[in-house]
Specification:
Elements lengths: L11 H16 L11 E6 L5 H12 L3 E4 L14 H8 L5 E6 L4 H6 L6 E6 L5 H14 L7 E5 L6 H11 L4 E5 L8 H9 L3 E5 L11 E4 L10 H7 L7 H4 L7 E3 L20 H6 L1 H27 L1
Parallel strand pairs: 1-2, 1-3, 3-4, 5-6, 5-8, 6-7, 8-9
Helix pairs in contact: 1-5, 1-11, 2-11, 5-6
The chain binds phosphoric acid mono(formamide)ester.
EC number: 2.1.3.2
Catalytic activity: carbamoyl phosphate + L-aspartate = N-carbamoyl-L-aspartate + phosphate + H(+)
Keywords: Pyrimidine biosynthesis, Transferase
Length: 313
């Protein structure tokens, strides 16, 4: 089964297939009944605006519909139902599942219990591979392609699942990756090990100015208060690594600024009006990219259903 759990398992060809399909969808939107009758189960055990709504928009624009589990506190998880049982039940109602969960590894575990495609929409501080696909799409459209980019990734590198997925994917496109963070929020050891094993070009910095003038892309992330086990640890780093319009005077004119959003205060609102800002476009790209991904996955299951029907006859 084609689950989408981690960017580590997406090849360069896989990524290019999705991005090419997304570009084709933007140029020539598919028929509104392309996947009529198909249902996408949305299982969000953590808050979301962009991921949940863009998946819902994507399946609806393909002619299908979304089945939303709703808030966790109105689901049977509150009665003690396990994640494994929850996804096993919901797979009987839907053709594919989208799962967001606060525990790292939850999507891997859940995928072992279902036969429909399961898409990881964020597992704690682990991975967020569909975010990476739309991040790469945004870079490809605005930074002159994906080959040999110099990318700065700044903020919460320790708990940032968008960062972990993006770092794996950028390695497949031979990017130079510059990680900018306080010492306490450096990349996790496991991710550093994987990047090293994959031959990634990686440097770490305390100060954005060490690298800002070289960057094609500056990817800013939020310091995620909800992930810190200790509020004092959060307070010690909150408010560091903000950028404003003055910061970007030291960047190349072509440098694009991205952020997976939501932002708190790491990008000053004055940046929004500059040519550098691409984070709202990035969020909007979630729809064509998730349409492309669902289109590919549902096409595959269409084929299987046709084969099953033939076998039965
Ligand atoms: N970027 C992202 O995952 O946003 P949401 O948390 O709003 O889904």
């Amino acid at each position: 089964r084609d689950h989408v759990i981690t960017a580590k398992n997406l090849s360069r060809a896989d990524i290019e297939t999705v991005l090419d399909r997304a570009a084709a969808i933007e140029r020539d939107p598919p028929d509104r009944d392309r996947h009529a009758g198909r249902l996408l189960g949305l299982c969000f055990f953590e808050p979301s605006t962009r991921t949940r709504m863009s998946f819902e928009a994507a399946i609806k624009r393909l002619g299908g519909d979304a089945l939303d589990m709703g808030p966790v506190d109105s689901s049977s998880a509150t009665k003690g139902e396990s994640l494994a049982d929850t996804v096993r039940v919901i797979e009987g109602y839907a053709d594919a599942l989208v799962l967001r969960h606060p525990s790292e590894g939850a999507a891997t575990m859940a995928s072992e219990f279902v036969d429909v495609p399961l898409l990881n929409a964020g597992d704690g501080a682990g991975q967020h591979p569909t975010q990476t696909l739309l991040d790469l799409y945004t870079m490809r459209e605005n930074a002159g392609g994906l080959a040999d980019l110099t990318v700065g990734i700044m903020g919460d590198l320790k708990y940032g699942r968008t960062v972990h997925s993006l770092a794996y994917a950028l390695t497949k496109f031979d990017a130079s990756q510059h990680f900018v963070s306080p010492e306490s929020l450096r990349l996790p050891r496991s991710v550093r090990y994987d990047l090293h094993e994959a031959g990634a070009q990686v440097r770490e910095h305390d100060d954005l100015d060490e690298v800002l003038s070289e960057l094609d892309v500056l990817y800013v992330t939020r310091i995620q208060r909800e992930r810190f086990p200790d509020e004092n640890e959060y307070r010690a780093v909150a408010g560091e690594y903000r950028i404003d319009a003055e910061t970007l005077e030291r960047a190349r004119d072509e440098c694009i600024v991205m952020h997976p959003l939501p932002r708190v205060d790491e990008i000053a609102p004055a940046v929004d009006a500059t040519e550098h800002a691409h984070y709202f476009e990035q969020a909007h790209n979630g729809v064509p990219v998730r349409m492309a991904l669902l289109d590919l996955l549902l096409d595959d299951t269409d084929g299987e259903e046709a084969a099953d029907a033939t076998d039965d006859s």
